[in-house]
Design brief:
This protein is an all-alpha fold. It is 67% helix and 0% strand.
Length: 290
């Protein structure tokens, strides 16, 4: 598949690439990536790459983003560099698809983001001011609202919630929603109010009488927990992803310990499994991103 060829050219700099279309002294250039993608999708290129569309690549883009998060969790710089390259492949492919359709090209993508970064940092590139990171965030939201007005997307700049992507995972979306509201002063005075709200929501979940009420109240519990994460400087999505990885690792170790002792894990009693769990916990979790 052309995708594999492209990734080998990009990331395996220690592996010789026979008949490389790119001179070795240019293999690290951004333009080389654009040229390789154009070759793969052009006449005489790769049939698989040539037939891809924005829609067909959505899953790939999402997977590459999650693999990048995993590389960050692992703390592996080489793996992170590799995964960031995979994301760049996605950018290059979407830009080439758009170029072929006459919509835009990679220069338009770069022009738009460079202008946006300059425009939204007036405290760096113009005469704006920002005393701290929080002020930068408030200014950023105000500038986005003004851009929406100028683009005719909203007569009043729209809602602070408009910039929360609908496709975000629920925990990430909840934290971003709360952060957007907090930037405009809709927030608790201190973490004590957040904890009190969490206790209140747990009580309401306990008192729920129907499945519908339990679903609604459980959502409120999760939302309050995410708010506690935000107040604690924790990304809820990261925390749960790491907790998932920790549980997976411990569970695998439990299964391995049982197998090494000739035990059928599925037939062990709950007390026996709990003993294995404690043993796995004591042994350590190793790489939490596995």
């Amino acid at each position: 598949m052309g995708w594999d060829i492209l990734l080998s050219v990009m990331s395996n700099d220690h592996i010789s690439t026979p008949n490389s279309p790119i001179p070795e002294d240019r293999i690290g250039d951004f333009q080389s990536l654009i040229d390789i993608v154009a070759r793969l999708r052009g006449p005489g290129g790769c049939p698989w790459d040539a037939k891809q569309t924005h829609e067909s690549l959505k899953r790939n883009l999402l997977e590459e983003c999650y693999e990048t998060l995993e590389a960050i969790d692992e703390g592996n710089p080489a793996e992170l560099a590799d995964e960031l390259g995979d994301i760049l492949v996605q950018v290059a492919f979407h830009a080439d698809i758009a170029r072929a359709a006459g919509d835009f090209d990679i220069a338009d993508v770069l022009t738009a983001i460079n202008r946006k970064l300059i425009r939204r940092h007036p405290h760096v590139f113009a005469d704006g001011s920002a005393s701290d990171a929080r002020q930068v965030e408030r200014n950023w939201e105000q500038l986005k609202a003004e851009e929406r007005r100028q683009a005719g997307k909203s007569a009043d700049g729209g809602s602070a919630m408009d910039s929360v992507p609908a496709a975000l995972p629920a925990l990430s979306a909840a934290q971003l929603i709360q952060d957007r509201a907090a930037r405009f002063g809709f927030d608790w005075d201190d973490a004590g109010g957040v904890l009190d709200k969490l206790v209140e929501e747990i009580g309401e979940f306990r008192d729920a009488a129907t499945d519908e009420e339990r679903l609604d109240e459980f959502g409120d519990v999760l939302f309050a927990l995410v708010n506690l994460a935000r107040w604690s400087g924790i990304q809820a999505e990261d925390a749960l992803r790491q907790a998932n990885a920790k549980f997976r690792n411990r569970y695998r170790m439990m299964e391995r310990l049982a197998s090494e002792r000739g035990q059928d894990f599925a037939k062990l009693s709950l007390d026996e499994k709990e003993a294995l769990w404690q043993e796995a916990k004591t042994a350590g979790d190793g790489n939490l991103a596995v």
